[in-house]
């Protein structure tokens, strides 16, 4: 099977072509080597509108297509994605700095997303409701919204694009995808080629790859899309939500996290250490669900810290193409600079650098900070990097208070041998998801996913995503003449 090529082209209305910008180009770099992967002309507002127009034109037929047609196209795309596994993994390692372990995890997550979506077209069920008016019934139909715009991030570029795209397509919407400029291939054009090869009708799925300055506002403010699905930072998400509110269109926003990992006094310390290591350092911590703060009961703090530091000291870091490497590069230099600054400011405030704290290129050595407090920059800001922050607490009430002392509320974890007590504590944590005796990075298509507070407004997965990407229409039927008062 020939590998995909020409990733620099926009996919609009079933055709591949150059972007139309007169001023902007996208430069796609390998974050580990710094080498240029490709450079191409950015899409502009004209391309965005063309993509939305193509999606609108295709929307009517796709919305009323037999669910088996949508199912079969997604099944074919899944088959092709499976066959192209190594091609995809190689691209993901090269473009996003994913380690081989993380790339395989993202591939597997995408497979599960495909499988779940394949059964979704048959789940658009309405219902009949009784009326208080004699001889009348109300039929409630669940229908696709129409055209949906998807803005995806660079950290899990394929999966977090697919999670919106595949569900939107499954329930009968057409889609325009704008991937992050840092990962235009694995977040965008690779998916376009996959669906094209699977036989998706022209205009049903479109990809525009543009700089945020050139296409960002136009993508959200174009009058055609009924919903904007955004995954990314809270700062950008709040601006998108504000625009959507003003324009009276729906917004699905999945944003940042300051996730707490709580270790109670009765926890299995060795197991909790391993759990925390995975939840913190997978993909260099560049995951919205990644552990941001490790809160440890003061009576076991020293033992946990010693074992955790020893564990993290064994993690190999560097070239993500090395199968033994656990921690690869951050996506770009400005992220490295931001994190090192937060570490420095926190140390000046009294934190102790117990391990790491150095950087070479875009790779930050696995780092552990002890003697930290909840108010230090390295604790209260979303780290999005390979830095673990260890903070002691004295009792459950303080742990709950510390976990909730954040504008975010996406995910979290709690380790304890008392499961009933653990559930009662979890119910008091202001976050969308809490994983008892596990870590915070969990996303399964059949389980509801979503945050609270500044981490998001809506839910993904399960039946919740069907509700987000559809609307209800009521049609009443009057079977016998109604008596009117005049």
Short description:
This protein has 15 helices and 21 strands. With about 475 residues, the protein is an alpha/beta fold.
Q: How would the global form be characterised?
A: globular
Query: What's the CATH architecture of the largest domain?
Result: 3-Layer(aba) Sandwich
* CATH fold-level topology of the largest domain: Aldehyde Dehydrogenase, Chain A, domain 1
Q: Helicity level, as a percent range? A: 25-40%
Calculate Rg over CA atoms: 24 Å
CATH superfamily of the largest domain: Aldehyde Dehydrogenase, Chain A, domain 1
Give an overview in words.
The protein has 486 residues and is α/β, with parallel strands linked by helices. It has 2 domains: 10-256 and 455-473, Aldehyde Dehydrogenase, Chain A, domain 1; 259-436, 3-Layer(aba) Sandwich (Aldehyde Dehydrogenase, Chain A, domain 2), CATH 3.40.309.10. It has helices spanning 45-63, 67-83, 85-96, 100-118, 157-170, 184-198, 212-221, 234-247, 269-281, 301-312, 333-348, 377-380, 396-404, 419-427, 462-468; strands at 10-12, 15-17, 25-29, 36-41, 127-130, 136-144, 147-151, 174-178, 205-207, 227-231, 250-254, 259-263, 291-297, 352-355, 359-360, 363-364, 367-370, 387-393, 412-415, 435-436, 470-478. The strands form 6 sheets. The chain has a 7-stranded mixed β-sheet with strand order 14-17-18-13-12-19-20, with helices on both faces. Strands 9-8-7-10-11 form a 5-stranded parallel β-sheet, with helices on both faces. 52% of the residues are buried.
């Amino acid at each position: 099977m020939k590998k995909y090529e020409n990733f620099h082209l926009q996919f609009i209305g079933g055709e591949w072509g150059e972007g139309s910008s007169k001023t902007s180009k996208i430069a796609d770099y390998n974050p580990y080597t710094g080498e240029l992967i490709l450079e191409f002309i950015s899409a502009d507002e004209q391309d965005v509108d063309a993509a939305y127009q193509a999606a609108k034109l295709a929307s009517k037929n796709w919305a009323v297509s037999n669910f088996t047609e949508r199912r079969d196209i997604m099944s074919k795309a899944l088959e092709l994605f499976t066959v192209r596994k190594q091609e995809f993994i190689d691209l993901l390692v090269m473009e996003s700095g994913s380690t081989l372990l993380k790339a395989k995890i993202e591939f597997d997550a995408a497979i599960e997303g495909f499988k779940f979506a394949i059964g979704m077209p048959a789940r658009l069920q309405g219902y009949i409701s009784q009326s208080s008016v004699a001889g009348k019934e109300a039929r409630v139909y669940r229908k696709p919204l129409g055209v949906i715009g998807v803005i995806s991030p660079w950290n899990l570029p394929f999966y977090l694009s697919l999670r919106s795209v595949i569900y939107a397509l499954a329930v009968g919407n057409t889609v325009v995808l704008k991937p992050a400029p840092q990962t235009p291939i694995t977040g965008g054009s690779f998916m376009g080629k996959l669906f094209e090869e699977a036989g998706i009708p022209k205009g049903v799925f479109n990809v525009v790859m543009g700089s945020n300055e050139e296409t960002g506002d136009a993508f959200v403010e174009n009058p055609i899309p009924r919903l904007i699905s955004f995954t990314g930072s809270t700062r950008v998400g709040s601006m998108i939500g504000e625009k959507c509110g003003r324009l009276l269109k729906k917004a699905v926003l999945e944003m940042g996290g300051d996730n707490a990992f709580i270790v109670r006094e009765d926890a299995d310390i060795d197991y909790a250490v391993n759990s925390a290591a995975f939840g913190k350092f997978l993909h260099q911590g560049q995951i919205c669900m990644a552990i941001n703060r490790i809160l440890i009961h003061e009576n076991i703090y020293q033992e946990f810290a010693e074992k955790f530091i020893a564990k993290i000291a064994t993690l190999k870091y560097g070239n993500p193409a090395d199968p033994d490497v656990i921690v690869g590069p951050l996506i770009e230099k400005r992220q490295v600079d931001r994190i090192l600054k937060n570490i420095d400011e926190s140390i000046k405030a009294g934190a102790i650098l117990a391990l790491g704290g150095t950087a070479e290129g875009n790779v930050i050595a696995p780092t552990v900070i002890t003697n930290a407090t909840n108010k230090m920059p390295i604790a209260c800001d979303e780290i999005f990097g390979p830095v673990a922050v260890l903070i002691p607490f004295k009792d459950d009430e303080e742990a709950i208070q510390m976990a909730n002392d954040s504008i975010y509320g996406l995910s979290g974890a709690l380790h304890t041998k008392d499961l009933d007590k653990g559930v009662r504590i979890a119910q008091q944590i202001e976050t969308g998801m809490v994983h008892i005796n596990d870590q915070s990075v969990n996303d399964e298509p059949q389980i509801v996913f979503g945050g609270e507070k500044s981490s998001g407004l809506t839910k993904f997965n399960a039946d919740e995503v069907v509700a987000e990407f559809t609307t209800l229409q009521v049609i009443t039927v009057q079977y016998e003449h109604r008596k009117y008062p005049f």
